Amino acid sequence: MIATEKTIETKGAGAAWDVERVREDFPVLRQTVNGKPLVYLDNAASAQVPRIVIERGSKYLREEHSNIHRGVHYLSQRATSAYEGAREKVKRFINAREARECIFVRGVTEAVNLVMHGYGRKFVHEGDEVVVSEMEHHSNLVPWQMLCEEKGARLRVIPMDDAGELLLDEFDALLNERTKLVCVGHVSNALGTINPVKEIVARAHKLGVPVLVDGAQGAPHLKVDVQDLDCDFYAISGHKMFAPTGSGVLYGKAELLEKMNPFLGGGSMIRTVTFERSTYAAIPDKFEAGTPAIASQIGLGAAIDYLNGLDRAAALAHEQELLAYATERVSAIEGIRIIGNAREKASVLAFVIDEIHPHDVGTILDREGIAIRAGHHCAQPVMQHFGVPATARASFAFYNTREEADSLVAAVQKVIEVFG
Ligand code: 7TS
């Protein structure tokens, strides 16, 4: 890990975090499951949606619903301006230079596939290399495997240690004149590791290699400044960032997006069409074929408004405190092994219990009203590294409480009693 890189900014956190106040913004949290208060610890899969996002989405459906970009009529103009307004919000949120560098996509899976088809298939050739890390989510791994198979290129993997930290010296050794792209996650969804992406970008750029950062788990927790990171692509899933499913962003540097091939062909992405050939629209339209998820992307804009209204440093400090507290309490239980012990982590507490399958842990916790995720978390190589088929994973958001961490611990103890 790079000591000089400050990835976690909790300094400057103002007044103490009023978690009960914040919880009032999330109607879904106020319910019982199996007769117990819902304890929602599956935020890495999808985070919950605050009221202002729900209201913005229903306002669109009630008053503005119409197709964008093509209409001269009133409703179409309103829908277009709300949709493009959301793009402006994204631009400011990640500090992109220009709004046209923010492509609306359904989520990180689509973003990575867009770069694979648009950039990879054009610029990666036989004998070239694409670098991923050992802790990638399948969506930032399988597309690159598909590309390498098609092109006769080679997939190289940055290894990690047993704490779940990437080995940067090994990364340096992988880089060479055949390397065409580096694709790495900001935060691991299976381990919680915060990767030193700024440093990774700097090292790749020394050889002129562009870097794609999978920000699915980064953007919901960390301040993202794409100009400061200097990454070439940054991918976001809206549903992990308090917005509806179907929303998401691929940030790309304009000069790269401009020289890429389109991904999906169809309406809205063209300039002219004849049977002989078509010419393509400028970015971002070139990458937004067809009718997009208008309501969802407007919802993403509202989620950004919501986040901007919070003291994000205090939110992160709260999450970090919660993670440390839960980690300490869960580790103290006999027979538990934490998977992922990086020095810098966000949100994720993954563990296995001796002789008990994680799915059984998840099922018993559900009976207690506690939502966690059990499985390989779409990161099978991570499971292979740690020699486990699956883990149980609790993942926190700023609306979770210490009492919920206590409920998690009590329920895990119950699991051990039942199976032990
Ligand atoms: N990358 C990372 C790091 C992720 O955590 C996920 C989803 C994706 C990419 C894919 O995002 P999508 O929005 O396109 O699906 N991760 C998880 C998870 O951890 N549990 O459910 C989905």
Could you describe the 3D structure shown?
It is a single chain. The chain is of the alpha/beta class and 420 residues long. The chain folds into 2 domains: 19-49 and 311-418, Aspartate Aminotransferase, domain 1 (Alpha-Beta Complex); 54-308, Type I PLP-dependent aspartate aminotransferase-like (Major domain) (Aspartate Aminotransferase, domain 2, 3-Layer(aba) Sandwich), CATH 3.40.640. The chain has 14 helices and 17 strands. The strands form 5 sheets. It has a 7-stranded mixed sheet, sandwiched between helices. Strand 8 (211-214), helix 8 and strand 9 (233-237) form a beta-alpha-beta unit. Helix 3 crosses helix 10 (294-308). The chain is globular. The chain starts with 18 loop residues before the first helix and ends with a helix. Ligand 7TS binds at residues 44-45, 107-109, 137, 139-140, 185, 189, 214, 216-217, 237, 373, 377-378.
Instruction: Give the overall silhouette.
Output: globular
Could you give the order of strands across the largest sheet?
4-10-9-8-7-5-6
The CATH architecture of the largest domain would be: 3-Layer(aba) Sandwich
Indicate the proportion of strand residues.
15-25%
Computed structural class: alpha/beta
Helix content: 25-40%
